[in-house]
Amino acid sequence: MLQAGSSSSGSSSPVFLQSSEATSSDSYRKHISVAFPSHGSANQLRLFADIPNCVKRDDVCPSKLLLEREQRLGGGDEETVSFIRGKRLLRELSTWGIGGPCNYFVEVFDEIQLISAIRFCATNSIEFLIIGKGSNCLFDDSGFDGCIILNRITTFENIEDGVYRVGGGYPINKLGVQCSNAGFGGLEFAGGVPGTVGGAAFMNAGADGQETADSIESVEIITTDGIKRVLQRKELAFGYRTSSFQEMKDLAAIVSVTFRLNRSATAKTKLQRHLERRRKSQPIYQRSAGSVFRNPEGLGVSAGELIEKTGLKGFVLGGAKISELHANFFINFNRSSSKNMIDLINLVGEKVDQQFGIRLRKEIRIVPYNAS
Question: Which residues form the FAD-binding PCMH-type domain (predicted)?
Fold first, then answer.
């Protein structure tokens, strides 16, 4: 999942544990710990407010100090997330393998940590993006001048036969395989999609006549103010690679999706057929971001076919290359820079427009260094 965050302040915020070096140029590599009380007891609030500026460069706030003060005050459970400053390279978080360092980086494993991270960014006016597998984004070589929040919410709950509530960070291909092997149809196409459940819902991912939206019952989201909302399927609109989520100005992240699937005697066979077709027609073992362009609607021709007809299949620009297996897959085959890839994307778009009068729309997202 990738979603740019707002920098407006939330209605409430956690207590921040950070050093006085937070904005100094010589503290480029460091951690910041944010403690967010789970239950908000008075003792817990005193516990976290009473801790001095204890985060030092390359350190996480000392857990021993937290423990000692909690024992004195009789506090309870808390959630703590650690922000890493300037160390994490975005090329490590993207299937394209392109991108420089982000200013802040944090992994979240549940919705309390996610809310804490969002409120930290909002209160400190830090732009943020939430990602899952990074399978549809192109990061800048300079990195990202904000915070990357990596969604690791991978909960999986089988509510009843064919009904699954799944975390936004859960791999969508894993879910597709699990459900199909269990004899439930609707997500067979997902078995070969290298993204997350949240990303699939956001983009309405699909293939071979199936779409994510077809099986959605409800979606839980977190807003940029750190508020949780549950949206029923009837409240959402979906189209070809589009969804209501893409138009929501206050959307921060998709926390979980509930799917309702139907029994299918052919689900497992259909899954295997999808996987085999992908192996033969797509460069699944090379660094790509899947389809770069959306297929033109109502024309009966795919983006890949149009690109192939321009004669650009296999074309190389710097370290970027159009796949010889599938013309709508662009490969980082030799340490491509983001500029290489952007130039290749623009070249292809111009060629298709010149030859066929068709303006292709990008399916991937280009993330600039400064998102504002």
Answer: 97-264
**317 CB contacts (<8 Å, ≥6 apart)?**
340, 343, 344, 347
**Rounded mean pLDDT of the chain?**
82
Q: How far apart are CA 232 and CA 339, in angstroms?
A: 41
The H or E element containing residue 15 is: strand 15-17
Instruction: Give CA–CA dist 52/39, Å, rounded.
Output: 22
Q: Distance between CA 137 and CA 80 in Å, rounded?
A: 28
- Taking the C-alpha atoms of residue 32 and residue 85, their distance in angstroms, rounded to an integer, is 8
Residue 180 has pLDDT above 70, yes or no: yes
Please tell me the distance from the alpha carbon of residue 142 to that of residue 158, in angstroms, as a whole number.
Answer: 42
pLDDT of amino acid 6: 36
190: closest CA among 251, 244, 261, 239?
261
How far apart are the C-alpha atoms of 114 and 226, rounded to whole Å? Answer: 8
Q: How do beta strands 365-367 and 228-232 pair?
A: unpaired
How is residue 362 annotated by DSSP?
Answer: B
pLDDT of residue 79: 59
Q: How large is the average pLDDT for residues 130-151?
A: 95
One-character DSSP codes across 250-297 = TEEEEEEEEEE-EE-TTHHHHHHHHHHHHHHHS-TTSS--SBSBPPPT
Q: What is the CA radius of gyration of the chain?
A: 22
Q: What is the pLDDT of residues 227-242, one digit of tens each?
A: 899 999 999 999 999 9
